[in-house]
Every structure is written in structure tokens, then in C-alpha cells.
């Protein structure tokens, strides 16, 4: 009889342990730039992650396990990003990391992520994040190279061969400039000016005055945060009437609001999310984009492509976790790498062992700002 009771108690104990383990949440860590110059990128990313985690948990979680989101705000400081990622790994014991609003933050943490073997999905754009391929690192934002290709294709169609370049001093800006210098000869484009500014600068008229003295046919500003809005206003103030191009780093309503009427006519590559209602009904992205847009705007106001990166990263991670059935890091990493045909806000993702992003240049739409709104050009 004692043996029976002992076995029964052991069984009940093991069942209790199993239930307790099943109830443990899946921990997803994030480090985003919610304050500082890049806050209009990081804020919608965090809001989206929080919104979608709440939605997933309300529907039963992942295989019955809730998601716990643990977040830290880097303020755009790469050193802080490294500290927070170490905390997420060592103290918070997260199963997966989503983050890196900026390329600088992302690139800074990659050595730790790779060393510790944590699946990491970045929201930043620099091509160096996933090229060359790194085992534990993935990304959902289209690359700066893809953005430059879309811009140069449009310039070539418009017969614009001489351009003045002006860029910020962040990791995203510098990576974009590098791609511009590499790709310009392929498109028959000559740089007649190559100016720079600090991302915290409040006036760029000195650099733009130099540009005005050249024979440039167009201006390309590759940057993010508030600085591109200042560049745009300064161009207008100086009476420079050249076509103006920006990077995808300004693809949010916040940029239009900051730049005001000076932004009219500016062109840039952007994810389809900002022009979702202009897409044809047979576009596979349209229902996904409109559903996310409605959900986000019902809570937080105008949607941005950056919030969309939060959506894509979390839903790709969720799908991988569901296929594995538990947060085994190595297996989740493998399943993220097998992502195929995932329709997200940035495009349709098809990842491979050699491609940890899975998007092509067609993920971008070329848009123009008209009457304070986005308009698809092609």
C-alpha cells in the first residue's frame, strides 16, 4: 500500500511539475529606441509588440503558453543597447530577442547574441546586419541597398545623373552612404557633392549652401530621425528647387508632420503599409496590411512602416515557436530560417540559410508626398 501511495504521490508531483512548466511564459526580450532622435521609429515598434503580444495571449498564447515581453529603451545609445541585451540574456533569461530600432544599436549587440546563441530578429535596415549571414541573426526591415536601388532606378527614369548627397552620422546613414557610393556607377550617376551632418544638428544650411553652388540635378538625403525634416525645411528656406529624395528612414507620418509643406514632392522608397489602401485588391499583402493598420490606428493613431517591422518580427517568431512547440533556442532559430511565403507588412518573406531577411527590392514602393500624404509612384 505504501508503495502505491508513494508512486501516486510521485505521479502527482510530476504532473504538477509538467503543468507548472507548461504554464511558464515564453520570454521575448526587446531593446528599442523609444526616446531620443529616433523615437518616432521605436515608439510604434514597441506599441505594436505590446499590442500583438496582448492579442496573442488573449487567444491562448503559443501552444497554450503566454508570451512575456521584457523591454528596455536604449534612447538610441549603442552602449546601452549592449548592456540591455546582456541583461536580457543573463538576468531575464529570454528565449528570443526582437529589437535594434537603429542599425547602430543592432550592429553593436550582434557579437553577444552570436556568442550566447539567442535567436535575434532585428528591426533595422543596414545590409551589414545579415550580410554576411550570421547564424543567430535575422532581420525584417528591407536593406539600405534595396532602398538605394529603388531611388537610383527612379532617378535614371527621370534623367537625373548628377546628384548631391547629404547624410547623417548614424550607423544607418553611413551604411546607406556606402551603398550609394557602390551603386552609383552602375546607374550612371555622379556625386557632385557629398555632405554630412550630425543627427542632433538643428541647422544644415551651411552644407546645403555648398550644394546649391554645384550643378546637381537632384538632392538625396539618406538619414532618419528628426534631422531629415530639418534638411527638408532648410532646402525650402534656401530656395533650392531641385528634386528631393529621402531614404526609407523617414517613411512615417511623423516626418511629414515635422517637415510640413517643405516635404511636398519629396520621393522615397517605403513599405507598402503606408499606401495599403492604394494597392490593387489582388495584392496578397493588402488584407494583412489593412488588418494591422485598422488594429493599430484604433489604439494609437497613424500607422508607420516601423511599427510594421515590429509586427513582422513577432509574427515570424510566433510561427517558428508554434512549429517547434516550445522555446528551444536552436530549434526556433532553425524554424525562423525556414520561413517561407510569410506575408508581412514589409513584403513576402522567403528566408534561407544564405538569406536571413528574405525580401527583394520589390518589397519597396516608390512614393511621393502630395498634399501631406503618400502617393504611389511605382
Notable traits:
alpha/beta, Rossmann fold, five-stranded parallel beta sheet, four-stranded parallel beta sheet, 12 helices, 14 strands, globular
Question: Can you offer a commentary on this structure?
Answer:
- The chain contains 12 helices and 14 strands.
- The chain has 378 residues and is an alpha/beta fold.
- It has 2 domains: 10-142 and 286-361, 3-Layer(aba) Sandwich (Rossmann fold); 145-277 and 364-376, Response regulator (Rossmann fold, 3-Layer(aba) Sandwich).
- Helix 8 (227-237) links the parallel strand 8 (218-222) and strand 9.
- The longest helix has 22 residues, at 2-23.
- The protein is globular.
- It starts with a helix and ends with a strand.
